[in-house]
Write a structure and sequence with these properties.
Elements (H helix, E strand, L loop, with lengths): L2 H7 L27 E3 L13 E7 L4 H16 L4 E7 L7 H12 L6 H10 L8 H12 L3 H8 L2 H16 L7 E4 L3 E3 L5 H16 L4
Length: 216
């Protein structure tokens, strides 16, 4: 558990300035900059060429809070309005989380179905599969999704994947993120003092609406 998560689910719940409202319920919740959301340290979109408003979830398969958030983020993704794109970025904050970031990109490279994303969270945090190394993860994907385990490991350890994770880490650091799950909107704002996952989705939708209106 990282610094932000400890604060997110314990002490900072006491300082939330407003009640959470479920995302997409049509109400205009008021959130405060410096509390429920903050400006990123270095404003930067993940994809500067895409003109759509960008919502990014910074996560790790090794994070149990990300596993608990997964149903909420699936709901959020479905409710995002037109003109908004959702992306996910795996954080590799330490050596234990590096294989999970490698696995995320290897799975995308080999065309593994998107359903594997939630399934891997379940395998790790509910079924308690021993999935800690890239080889163990490769075997899991081979067993459940029919990929070639050797090709999976090769893709995970490729220079392409390495460079992508290094670039992600630089971007995540520039956003001022030290914990997961964190949501970043248009590279300009990230979630802050959030008391629960409904509020996390609510502030995301608030920021999305703000950006669709030109940042006003």
């Amino acid at each position: 558990m990282f610094k932000r998560l400890s604060l997110l689910f314990v002490g900072l719940a006491l300082t939330a300035a407003c009640s959470a409202r479920p995302a997409g319920d049509g109400t205009a919740a008021a959130y405060t900059e410096g509390q429920q959301y903050v400006a990123t340290t270095t404003p930067q979109r993940l994809d500067p060429k895409d003109g759509k408003v960008e919502v990014v979830e910074v996560f790790s398969y090794g994070c149990i809070h990300c596993a608990h958030y997964e149903p909420y983020v699936e709901k959020l993704e479905k409710e995002l309005p037109k003109g908004v794109v959702f992306r996910a970025v795996p954080a590799a904050f330490n050596d234990a989380w590096l294989p999970y970031a490698q696995a995320y990109y290897a799975a995308k490279k080999l065309g593994v179905p998107g359903s594997a994303h939630a399934a891997l969270f379940k395998a790790i945090h509910e079924d308690h599969y021993p999935l800690r190394t890239i080889e163990e993860l490769g075997d899991w994907y081979a067993q459940h999704y029919g990929v070639d385990a050797a090709k999976f490991v090769a893709a995970a350890k490729s220079d392409e994947t390495k460079n992508r994770i290094l670039a992600d880490s630089k971007t995540i650091q520039g956003w001022g993120i030290d914990g997961t799950p964190t949501i970043v909107v248009n590279g300009k704002y990230r979630s802050g003092q959030i008391k629960d996952f409904d509020e996390l989705n609510g502030v995301t939708m608030y920021l999305v609406d703000k950006e669709l209106k030109g940042g006003k």
